[in-house]
Amino acid sequence: MDRYDVVILGSGQAAKPLALAFAAAGRRVAFVERAHVGGTCVNTGCTPTKTMVASARVAHLARRAGDFGVHTAAVSVDMAQVRERTRRIVRQFADSSRAALEAQPGVELMFGAGRFVGPRQLEVVLNDGSGSRRIAGDVVVIDTGARTAVPHLEGLEQVPWLDHAGMLGLATLPEHLLVLGGGYVGLEFAQMFRRFGSRVTIVQRTQQLLPREDADAAAAIHEVLAAEGIEIWLESQARRVTRDGEPIALTCDTRDGERRLAGSHLLLATGRTPNTDLLNLAAGGIEVDPRGHVKVDERLATSAEGVFAVGDVKGGPAFTHIAYDDYRILHTNLLGNGDATIRGRMVPYVVFTDPELARVGLSETEARKQGRPIRVARMGMDRVARALEMDEARGFIKIVIDAETERILGATILGVAAGELMSVLEVAMMGGLTASTLRDATFAHPTLAESLNNVMAAR
């Protein structure tokens, strides 16, 4: 058995910087990856989807050119070219990550499937067919991520379906895309392919899209998508799916009774499940929760001594920036003799529809459930000069403020560049700035940030 100071299993966003940091500190590192360096974000998540979102937005703006006094010819979309552009950027990111690992002395990159065979001991079946290796580490970090959760749906095994990764590989445009799920993945792909030219229908089982958001935010984004021609069925439960000939038929129980939807393609956007089922975690003494996520404490330690889990595999917020913060915690504690934890960390995020929906801190619903004394400052984007000048006046800014201290508790923004504006508020929250401070601040004109002057004065 080959022994290492550190074994990293999987190559999510925490894995690469951890491997480089340990190696730079003189540790011998085994880096085990089943397929592609970079994890979900680089290969099938953030990088390719936001690249395609950008292409879809260009198509949308080109069709709107007349609104700005600019006249163009008819707009068409070449999906094969969109796909190649996306793949080129993914290759650039993935190749850069792999090259950095291969160039770092002290890091041994292994491509294969790893599984535990004992405490901090793994067997790796190598992809090149040369057999397997047994390795052990003083420290083991699990960063194997998650994959699409396949729902229990009658007939699904007989019907070709796509997840987000499959959508990225399409070279031709779906005639009618059925999207099962109204979370952020479903909404981003629904709008993207509607703008490419597909007919799109969303089926969502809850009373609103984005069920974790405030009702006003969900209603506003519903309105945006419906205005672009996307058909949306709420409180609709998919019961079975069939394929008789070419169309895919999805039968749903809706508020109006049973309905049969026919489409050319079916996208499953019904959540994620952790990649732990093949890791033989019990052999390593590593506990999981009922959904298969690795259990960790606030320092990301598992139930097994010397074993840690980072990123999506441990559950909680499944965002790249959270995975990177997991890296910072382990770096601080394992290399810097610190005592960093996940306790109280902010979880900002952005749904990359157009306009974007951005959140940080408490929502209004969450704050009211806690019984906190709050005031809510709200203002439409149609009162923001910069948004009007850009003809991007859809959406609103809503900020939850502690009524006693005037500290900012959270923000929800639906609007152009909402993620950037939300980040301004996150920095203000980190610095403990009050609503009055932002109300009286001098921001450059005309910028989106200057809207904070007016919204902080709103009731």
Automatic annotation (TrEMBL):
Positions that bind FAD: K50, G114, D312
Domain FAD/NAD(P)-binding: 4-325
InterPro entries attached to this UniProt entry: FAD/NAD-bd_sf, FAD/NAD-binding_dom, FAD/NAD-linked_Rdtase_dimer_sf, Pyr_nuc-diS_OxRdtase, Pyr_nucl-diS_OxRdtase_dimer
Keyword tags: FAD, Flavoprotein, NAD, Nucleotide-binding, Oxidoreductase
Cofactor note: Binds 1 FAD per subunit.
Binding site for NAD(+): G181, G182, G183, Y184, V185, G186, L187, E188, G271
Molecular function GO terms recorded: flavin adenine dinucleotide binding; NAD(P)H dehydrogenase (quinone) activity
UniProt keyword annotation of tRNA-binding present: no
Needed cofactors: FAD
Active site: H445
Transmembrane regions: none
UniProt family annotation: Belongs to the class-I pyridine nucleotide-disulfide oxidoreductase family.
Protein name stated in the entry: Mercuric reductase
Protein species of origin: Nannocystis pusilla
Taxonomic classification: Bacteria, Pseudomonadati, Myxococcota, Polyangia, Nannocystales
